[in-house]
Please model this.
Amino acid sequence: MSFDKKAKDWDKDPKKVSRAKLFADEIVGFLNGHKVENALEFGSGTGLVSFNLFKRFANITLADTSRGMIEVLKEKIEITGAENMVPLLIDILEDALPQEGFEIIYTLLTLHHIHDVKKTLGIFNNLLNKGGYLCIGDLVTEDGSFHYKDPDFDGHKGFDTEEFKTWMTDSGFTVEVDKIFFELEREQNSVIKKYPMFLLIGKKN
Model:
């Protein structure tokens, strides 16, 4: 699945833009005015989520493994003058970030692409300050049709949220929010299929 090739047109899909805003709005509502100095978006893509948050958070690090996505993100940052957004082309499962001590980490529709989710949750825990928050938006278990246009996809077919909460607990988080916050629709063979998306927010113990 080549995100590099899709990067230039990524923001042209209004559905991607709207669900990113909805996810960001959920984060803002949960924080309820809580001040954030340092935030991390994992799997940032072109920054659709973070551009809804950069005026609320003092500093945002945006990490992604797609060079194409990061290049588009850099262009958007330059155009908007969002100097508090720092794009990083990095795989945090393999390489250390230049900083730790985040108050919040958030990620939207990324973890189902990651093979070792438990390892990733452990890394998130290490990167967060005590009492920091992890916000995850992703797919509830689906029948495998979500990526039907990408035959090479080898990630997860969504997640069982009860199992995912256990992973979070085992990784040192207390789950504070567990809800379905959005229903994503895709057309397949002239039929509209619906894919529920969950929001889980955990607090580092």
User: Anything to note?
Assistant: The chain is about 30% helix and 35% strand. The radius of gyration is 16 Å. The mean pLDDT is 92. The helical segments are 3-6, 14-31, 67-80, 117-127, 161-170.
